[in-house]
Amino acid sequence: MCTLEKRGKIFFLTLTGDGADEHRLNPTLIASIRSTLSEVKSQSTRGTVLITVAEGKFFSNGFDLAWAKSASGGSPSEAVNLLRHMVRLFKDVVADLISLPMPTIAAVTGHAAAAGLLLAMSHDYVMMRRDRGFLYMSEVDMGMTLADYFTAMIRSKVAKPDARRDVLLRGVKVKADEAVVKGLIDSAHDSVEKVVEAAVRLGEELSKRKWDGEVYAEIRKALYPELIGVLGLTTKPLVKGRL
Questions:
Q1: Are residues 17 and 29 in contact, defined by beta-carbon separation less than 8 angstroms?
Q2: Rounded to 10 degrees, what is the CA torsion of 63, 66, 68, 71?
Q3: Strand, helix or coil at 170?
Q4: What is the pLDDT along the chain (243 residues), one digit of tens a residue?
Q5: C-alpha count within 13 angstroms, C-beta hemisphere, residue 164
Q6: Cα 145 from Cα 205, distance rounded (Å)
Q7: In Å, how far are 72, 144, 161, 171 from 166, measured between CA atoms?
Q8: In whole angstroms, what is the distance from residue 237 CA to residue 215 CA?
């Protein structure tokens, strides 16, 4: 599950628990994240910022395959259907983040794999601890193809072809310093505390700009035309500010 806290102008969305479930994305957690993001959006004002963090050694280890197997009643085909259901549900989380009317920061305090990596990349800024954790797109190792919005995200956010190849076609587990070089994240920090502190510093800097959230969201969407097309989002013309 997740919780929401507001300190000044900064919202903190926290994936809670000791991480025994690795913050795997199942329908319950996905619904909790979406509900929390809806609450954040409803309280958005000029200068608000979202920081997403997670408790335990995992940021998120992707979709909850164990849930799909247990809920399938032992039917392999039904387990596949339930996985596809989670893929469809999670698409809305990505759309919510891409259209959220404020800057967003992921403080990756542990491993982020598969859909967990996509969750982090759905934020405007990604910061990561270097003392533990890696980024990993596991699908090629697991013999699974990728949803269209996964590959659209990678193409939209990762500029270097060799980085995209290593993540998607080699299944490389990328640690923080290498992730900075590859352009997967913005910065690497020495501990959980340091990465959260860095996220808060950035959040406070961005908050001082007091941008119009609706304008911010429209500019963000316009940056990623392929991604918003796959997500089913649209842009709209806005004329605001001083003319």
A1: no
A2: -150
A3: coil
A4: 899 999 999 999 999 986 567 999 999 999 999 999 999 999 999 999 999 999 988 999 999 999 999 999 999 999 999 999 999 999 999 999 999 999 999 999 999 999 999 999 999 999 999 988 899 999 999 999 999 999 999 999 999 999 999 999 999 999 999 999 999 999 999 999 999 999 999 999 999 999 999 999 999 999 999 999 999 999 887 656 665
A5: 12
A6: 39
A7: 33, 16, 9, 6
A8: 9
Angle at 14 between CA 12 and CA 19, to 5 degrees: 160
Structure tokens at 240: 């605001």
d(CA 114, CA 65): 12
**How many Cβ atoms are within 10 Å of 98's Cβ, its own excluded?**
23
What is the β-pairing status of strands 135-136 and 111-113? parallel
